[in-house]
Amino acid sequence: MAYKELKKNDIAGRNEWYRYCVATKAVNVEVFPRTKYARVEWDYISVPKERDRDFYACERELRESLKDIYLLYAGSQSEFYGGGLVGYIDGLLISDARLAAEQISDLFEKTPTLASS
């Protein structure tokens, strides 16, 4: 699994990445860089509906792990919003946002309940 770095207004690129996530049954993780800071978003909408139970079963564990990733990279401009299924971290330095996105992607790939499904 991976993430995609896109401009927020790149609708065609976002749609293409979403279709890729659907085809690979991966969680949609995106990085939106600005001048100095970036936003990382995740959304499990791209995985098959029959996997909902798996995601809900480990939502609390995922949220705690996502908060840990946030705390690892957060600065004074940073904000965490959401939970284990859908959310974002905003205000990360661009280089830190890329690292956080990679860790978020790995988290969804390696969470036992999700990986075994």
Strands of the largest sheet, in order across it? Answer: 1-2-3-5-4
- Mean pLDDT, to the nearest integer, reads 92
Tally the helices: what do you get?
A: 5
Helix proportion range: 40-55%
Radius of gyration over alpha carbons? Answer: 13 Å
Q: How much of the sequence is in beta strands? A: 15-25%
Task: Provide the low-confidence segments as ranges.
Answer: none
Principal-axes shape call: globular
What features would you describe in this structure?
The protein is α+β, with helices and mostly antiparallel strands. It has a single domain (4-115), classed as Diaminopimelate Epimerase, Chain A, domain 1 (Roll). The protein is 48% helix and 23% strand. It has five helices and five strands, in the order βαββααββαα. A hairpin with a 3-residue loop joins strand 4 (79-82) and strand 5. Helix 3 runs antiparallel to helix 4 (94-110). The protein is globular. The model has no long low-confidence stretch (mean pLDDT 92).
Features:
117 residues, alpha+beta, Diaminopimelate Epimerase, Chain A, domain 1, 5 helices, 5 strands
Topology:
Layout: E1 4-5, H1 11-24, E2 28-33, E3 37-43, H2 52-57, H3 59-73, E4 79-82, E5 86-93, H4 94-110, H5 112-115
Parallel strand pairs: 1-2
Antiparallel strand pairs: 2-3, 3-5, 4-5
Helix pairs in contact: 3-4
Question: TL;DR?
Answer:
The protein is of the alpha+beta class and 117 residues long. The chain is built from five helices and five strands. The chain has a five-stranded mixed sheet with strand order 1-2-3-5-4.
